[in-house]
Amino acid sequence: MIYALLTGMKYGLILSVTFSLGPVFFSLLQTGIQKGFRSGALMAAGIALSDLMYAFVCQLGLSQLVKQFESNIAAVGGLIAIGFGIATFMKKSRLEVADNGTNQPQRVGTFRFISKGFLLNSLNPAVVLFWIGMASVASAKIEKSPAEAYIFLAGIISILFSSDLLKVYFARRISNYLSSNTLDWMNRIVGLCLTGFGVWLIYSALTGRIQ
């Protein structure tokens, strides 16, 4: 059990460094900077829930079923990413909105940030392929019992979630040194990244390049 957990944490550490850059990463940093640590942590929790869902489904041997709907996932994900991207691009920053982690988020905000992290991560075909690969690694390296395979995957998720929390923490720390104009430009850049990512997903789904 300990070996499975440590092996999973090792993979999680490697993947948190090599697999982190992307639209979700920039959106997570933006949320941490402009909305505070709690809101960023809620988004990180949504990402972790998405990872947990795919890890569980792939470990159950349903990865082929998931891959059959990969193009659909990409198309829907593209539309959602474009929606988030346009909203982010148009948003004006207000420094006073961000808290220092002392104010409790409202219930609507809580659901919004969790669902944003969950959707952006879930509707990314690269995440599907990633967890299919990790389920294969679990089968190859952790052979003693299914329970150890789940522990291996849990070790990966725990490190990925912890790394996301660290990103939010440091993003919040540097927010005190940023101006409203800088944050406006950050919104535009993140918005363009999300929109471009969404367009690419839809194009890939329509042309069959996801497969």
From TrEMBL:
It is found in: Cell membrane. This is LysE family transporter. The keyword Membrane applies. Keywords: Cell membrane, Membrane, Transmembrane, Transmembrane helix. It comes from the Bacteria. It is a multi-pass membrane protein. Its main location: membrane. InterPro entries: LeuE-type. The chain crosses the membrane at residues 12-29, 41-66, 72-90, 117-137, 149-169, 189-206. The keyword Transmembrane applies. It holds the Pfam family LysE. It comes from Xanthocytophaga flava.
